[in-house]
Amino acid sequence: MPSSANRNAHASAVYKCFHWELSKKVAEMVKLLQGSLGVYTFHCADPLLLWQGLDHLLDQLMNHYRALAGSGVEMSLRFADGAELSAQWIDENLFTPYLPMFADQEEILVIKNYGQIPEEAAKRLLMRVTALLEKREQGKFFFDHPVVFVSDIEVSSASGGGTGVGAAKKGRRKKSGGGAAGLFALFVESGIGAHLISELPKFWQYRQLLDFWEAAMALRLAIDAKELILKSISGSDTPIYDLHHTLQMLELQVSGSGSEEAVLAAHDIRDKIASPKIDKFSLAKLFSEREKGKREEFYRSLVQSQSSYDDLRSFFFFMQGHLAKLANYRTLLAQVRDGQKAKASSYEQEIIRVGGRWKGDEIRFAVRMFSELELLAKQRHPMLNAMLRSKHIENI
Questions:
Q1: pLDDT score recorded for residue 9
Q2: Helix/strand/coil (H, E, C) string of 317-357?
Q3: Is the overall model pTM greater than 0.70, yes or no?
């Protein structure tokens, strides 16, 4: 753990953990790093684990800053999508004094998909952060209020591996690259902030993830039921998503039957293993084609999937990231041409193929739509299904 001296010097700390360890790590992070200067990053390469972890992190940060602010101060969250940010937005929202409408208001700014910030805005952000680091002015916050940067892009840790806490090494600051990795490296190397990395489990660790979600959903599964579930996802392209979906179906089954105390065996759940679910890559391909017939199939598939609110929320979050990749398809194309990527995956090839068909305002409109749908899914709002049916009818 970082020493108290390091904490007082605002030493940056990187917390690495698996999803089932995240609650403990977040508690450590909030407790130990009151000198973080209000800068936080959260990285996880899986969209489902990302938003689940982000929910918990934001809950803890809200509680932390409410306690610091004292009674009578209202804390709120403000969200922004990195793909939509401009250099002007960076200046006005991160480097201009925060002036709340009322004196008893404070906010935490959450920038999702910060790895997808457009190149001009990313350069501006890195330049302004570097200039602020050179001043080294001591204050309550590095920016004018707490900021959480969120991304599904993998970054390397300065903590040296493991799942513990590590302080970044001090010394001469290296020149950082652009995008998420560049900003993350700049913060860590400069001793700024608290940084949480939720690592993806290996296939042999899915049992621990299953046990974690089983407890969270108050399920009781027999050993043969767990083995059946794990076997069903062994050949999947989206095993984490499929595992969560299956457990959610079982949760709905149990909560509606009045048999919450029953232990479910393999023969009790076999029919739920093949229940319909969202094929996010196939649906993303349909939406990306921009043809009305494809859109009709897209919305029809969502309506007919009978997916849970959590599954839909995960998908809508994924679609925002997908659209951000379409907006930056030229970067991906250049990486392939320059040999920075050994080989583009079939998904990346699809991004390159259709990216040029989209205009910037079309992408921004679609991102806002999926952001609104994500919020409805998070709220478990009954209007969500009605909206999906309406969009399906519009595209027939």
A1: 42
A2: HHHHHHHHHHHCHHHHHHHHHCCCCCCCCHHHHHHHHHHCC
A3: no
